[in-house]
Design goal:
single chain; mainly beta; 6-stranded mixed sheet; 5-stranded antiparallel sheet; 31% strand; elongated
């Protein structure tokens, strides 16, 4: 049997959740590291530890989920597979039925491998962005990082009212646009994410704000206002979808977020 030390630096939980026409909130990001052993176990300390077997390989996972800065100590180096996901952007807020808020964009998603030496490494757990109101936009998600590997947060969704709406924000995945006079979507950063969606023209019904971009798909691709799909990884021991975009607000019924943490939008 091969042995592998797998480190899961959970930068929060999974990404965005967008609520309704008046408020929104976001979840934080995730980071997972997996260290294959060349001769015995790769040794490391930190986080919540768990063990599991996958395809004949044993793994020792270290999971960090609290937002903020910290450290991770490797006492015996080796190759590491990593997954780094930033915090989700807050959804937009709206005034009334015709101006539902856009969904927040997912935090950036990236996965690859690198080599670590015995050392202490800095980590940052990215917080989720605050939701917006009718008069004030929400905030982007926080960046998540392991040493120099960084995934930036998702963009906040647009919102406001029909006469004076604010644009969605750029991020590693962009926020979705509100329904109003400013239907600017947030741009994503390839390959870590995708653009937010524009939603439906405010002259049309039902009123559907744009969905936030996800790791695998832009907002609105599955249908007007839907959050973009996240991406699936089994690095933490089972197949999990991460970095889904938040659904846009809709009157009369909510719109779904993307798989991987993206929340359902609120009803108008």
């Amino acid at each position: 049997m091969k042995a592998t030390d797998r480190l899961a630096l959970g930068l929060g939980l999974r990404h965005i959740l967008m609520r309704g026409v008046t408020a929104a909130w976001a979840l934080a990001g995730v980071l997972v590291l997996a260290l294959p052993a060349r001769a015995g176990w790769v040794a490391a300390t930190g986080g919540t530890e768990t063990y599991y077997e996958q395809n004949g390989v044993y793994y020792h996972a270290h999971i960090f989920t609290d937002a903020g800065a910290g450290t991770f100590t490797v006492t015996q180096g080796g190759e590491v597979e990593y997954l780094v996901v930033g915090g989700g952007g807050g959804g937009g807020g709206g005034a009334y039925h015709e101006n539902n808020g856009g969904g927040g964009g997912a935090g950036g998603f990236q996965t690859a491998s690198t080599s670590l030496v015995a050392s202490t490494y800095s980590i940052v757990v990215g917080a989720g962005g605050a939701g917006g109101t009718e008069t004030a936009p929400g905030s982007n998600g926080g960046l998540s990082a392991f040493d120099s590997i960084i995934s930036y947060g998702g963009g906040a969704g647009g919102g406001g009212n029909l006469a004076n709406s604010y644009p969605a924000q750029n991020g590693d995945s962009g926020g979705g646009a509100a329904i109003g006079n400013n239907r600017t979507v947030g741009n994503g950063t390839s390959p870590r994410g995708n653009n937010g969606g524009q939603g439906r023209d405010p002259r049309d019904y039902p009123w559907e704000a744009g969905g936030g971009g996800g790791a695998s798909q832009a907002g609105d691709t599955e249908g007007l206002g839907h959050g973009g799909r996240g991406a699936v990884s089994s690095i933490s021991g089972s197949a999990v979808a991460y970095a889904g975009g938040g659904g846009g607000g809709q009157d009369p019924a909510p719109l779904p977020g993307g798989n991987g943490g993206g929340g359902q939008g609120g009803a108008g």
